[in-house]
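Exercise 7.
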Amino acid sequence: MLKLKELPILERPYEKLELYGAEKLSNAELLGIIIKSGTKNETAVSLAQRILSIKMTNEKDELRFLHEITIEEFMNIKGIGKVKAIQLKALCELTKRMSAPVHNNNIIIKSTIDIVNLFMEELRYEKREIVKLVALSSKNVILRIINISYGGTNLAVVEPKEVLLEAIKMQAPRIILLHNHPSGDPTPSKEDYRITERISDCAELLGIDLLDHIVIGDGTYRSILCK
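Solution. The predicted structure, written as tokens, is:
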């Protein structure tokens, strides 16, 4: 089995990271550090390159597909056993959680893009539709972030009473609704517009202001209320 320590010093990802910093390493070298060891005929970096080539169509997609591979699919790759597969899935989950919004009462929402920046990396990889409610104070400080509904690959069912009940519990005068489209296309559907109008009308009766309903796609978004 070829090991990274058998490579010339300046080709070893461990040493390169220590000398030059993580940002100087390629995706394959970084992944090779996680994998640690290769197979009888290839190093961990070579194995990482082979993994990255499976679905690589362009630089943007090179790493994203790792989120989508299951443990079983990883194990079907020669050189990846159960332990390595679990390590890789753990790494993917950590990167997702690191990109998730920090639940902090000091976060102030000033524009639609503030919400998008908070949730884009969390929701763009989801394979099911998730509806989130962001409860805000009168000064647009985040009070709480609540998952209202989970759906399949197409639609999460959400009722106005579910949304507004949570807002009432929090005594939130303002709310923002958002959900993702697993297809990656954030274009609002007829149902998205319909439910937005219903929630907005019901919220107005209760003295709650629905500031926006945002649809998250793959790196893109659409705002239903803010033009």
